[in-house]
Amino acid sequence: MLRPRIALLSNPRSTGNIAQLSRIRDYCADHPDIFHYEVERAEQIGDALRTIARVHPKLLIINGGDGTVQSALTEIHNGGAFGDAAPPVAVLPNGKTNLIALDLGAQGDPINALERLVQLAQTDLSAHIVARELIALRYDASSRPVIGMFLGGAGLADTMLYCRNKIYPLGLPNGISHALTAIALLTRMLLRLQLWFLPPKPSPMELSVRRDGRISGRFAVLAVTTLEKMLLSSEVKSSGGGRLKVLAVEERPASLLHAFAGKLGRSSMRGVHFAETDEISIEGDNANLILDGETFRAETGRPITLQPAQPLSFVRLAA
């Protein structure tokens, strides 16, 4: 009896794969039911998925960071490689951030997660299938949407880029890198310093949220997500106002403290803006936005629009 096919899409250039890919390859060599396809660049993912579709996999596993996952989701949404029968997607814990993998319960050793997914693929997957809403990012109505799950902007994006470009190259463990980044950010905010070795001050930004009007200012945090948990709060009171959760925190230490300590949606907090919507447009003075690892720029007069995209099915591992 033939075992169900499993497709594994790997990005060898993902940070976590530098150390782990040889183990992944060895594991796949011992499991011929896994169809392993490696890409070197994001532009190859479309061709990879069209090839993978020919083996009709029961499960598509993505082995890479959030940027790799975002590129694959975009191709699944726009490319039509699987038609209306896209297999459920699973994500191995890898890369530097792994917000998507964490949301799907994938943590720790990627080989252990892969083994668990291979076991699940031999059974009825329905108990582990979850639908996830997605975000479609566009510069205009005619542009091809980029698909993702989490967007960070304003000071949050600036800090993520600071960590990526200035702290990660030091070769320190992730935990220490993130702690140094947090210290540098707090130093700039509390002492109001603007030095080259500290994260930059966020650019002015204007948000237009359907039904909630316009919000403008300098934001320490802008987060737009479809994930179950917001970045700063594990407890969000939903109002049912839309599928996108939007959090904007003004560039003030007191506002950040309120956002960390508060329960979003339960009461208004000075400097903290929370909304649920089905559309948001973002303009800014060359303000950075990061959607699952890919960087975009919001400019004055050229807004970026975010809307919900068609949900996809994912496989959630037990946390």
**CATH class membership of the largest domain:** Mainly Beta
CATH T-level topology of the largest domain? Tumour Suppressor Smad4
Major pleated sheet: 6 strands, antiparallel
- Named at the architecture level, the CATH assignment of the largest domain is Sandwich
What is the number of helical segments per DSSP (H or I, 4+ residues)? Answer: 8
Strand content is 25-35%
Helix content: 25-40%
| Mean of residue pLDDT values | 83
Low-confidence stretches: none
Order of neighbouring strands in the sheet with most strands? 6-5-16-13-8-9
Structural class of the helix and strand makeup? Answer: alpha+beta
One letter per element, helices H and strands E, the order comes to EHEHEHEHHEEEHHEEEEHEEEEE
Beginning-to-end CA distance, first to last residue: 32 Å
Strand tally = 16
- Domains counted in the coordinates: how many? 2
* CA-atom Rg in angstroms: 20 Å
Global morphology:
globular
Set out the fold topology.
Blueprint (H helix, E strand, L loop, with lengths): L5 E5 L6 H13 L4 E5 L6 H9 L5 E5 L2 H14 L9 E3 L7 H5 L6 H12 L7 E10 L7 E3 L1 E4 L1 H13 L6 H18 L13 E5 L3 E5 L1 E7 L18 E7 L2 H9 L10 E6 L2 E5 L2 E5 L2 E5 L5 E12 L4
Parallel strand pairs: 1-2, 1-3, 3-4
Antiparallel strand pairs: 5-6, 5-16, 7-10, 7-14, 8-9, 8-13, 10-11, 11-12, 13-16, 14-15
Helix pairs in contact: 6-7
Label this structure with key terms.
globular; 319 residues; Rossmann fold; alpha+beta; 8 helices; 6-stranded antiparallel sheet; Tumour Suppressor Smad4
Short description:
This protein is an alpha+beta fold. It has two domains: 6-132, 3-Layer(aba) Sandwich (Rossmann fold); 150-291, Tumour Suppressor Smad4 (Sandwich), CATH 2.60.200. The chain has helices at residues 17-29, 45-53, 66-79, 99-103, 110-121, 155-167, 174-191, 253-261; strands spanning 6-10, 34-38, 59-63, 89-91, 129-138, 146-148, 150-153, 205-209, 213-217, 219-225, 244-250, 272-277, 280-284, 287-291, 294-298, 304-315.
